[in-house]
Specification:
Number of domains: 1
Number of helices: 3
Strand content: 15-25%
CATH class: Alpha Beta
Distance between the termini: 37 Å
CATH architecture: 2-Layer Sandwich
Number of strands: 3
CATH topology: GMP Synthetase, Chain A, domain 3
Largest sheet: 3 strands, mixed
Order of helices and strands: HEEHEH
Helix content: 25-40%
CATH superfamily: Fe-S cluster assembly (FSCA)
Strand order of the largest sheet: 1-2-3
Radius of gyration: 13 Å
Shape: globular
Length: 98
């Protein structure tokens, strides 16, 4: 069974196509829960009207399913708390010149 850090590392392979930075460093992943049967990813997007929401959540589901194929994957897309740039890592801020 994978731990939270391993799952977050896998999720760093999911890049926000509009910003070009991974969803973990952007601060879009709020929680990772894992047990013997399921991986649950709770995340948000930079804006509720993001036109790429279906693509990004499907990408998350696919990379986690590939990482642990025997488990079910649930992606909970939430809007509270609202994402703000202060949720980004130092690395993401540097990439954006902030």
């Amino acid at each position: 069974m994978a731990n939270k850090e391993e799952i977050l590392e896998v999720l760093k392979g999911v890049i926000d196509p509009e910003i070009g930075i991974n969803i973990v460093d952007l601060g879009l992943v709020y929680a990772v829960e894992s047990n013997d049967e399921v991986n649950i990813i709770t995340m948000t997007l930079t804006t509720p009207g993001c036109p790429m929401h279906s693509s990004i959540t499907a990408w998350v589901e696919n990379v986690i399913q590939h990482f642990e194929p025997a488990k079910k994957v649930i992606v909970n897309l939430v809007w509270e708390p609202q994402w703000t740039p202060d949720k980004m890592t130092h690395e993401a801020r540097e990439q954006l010149g902030m």
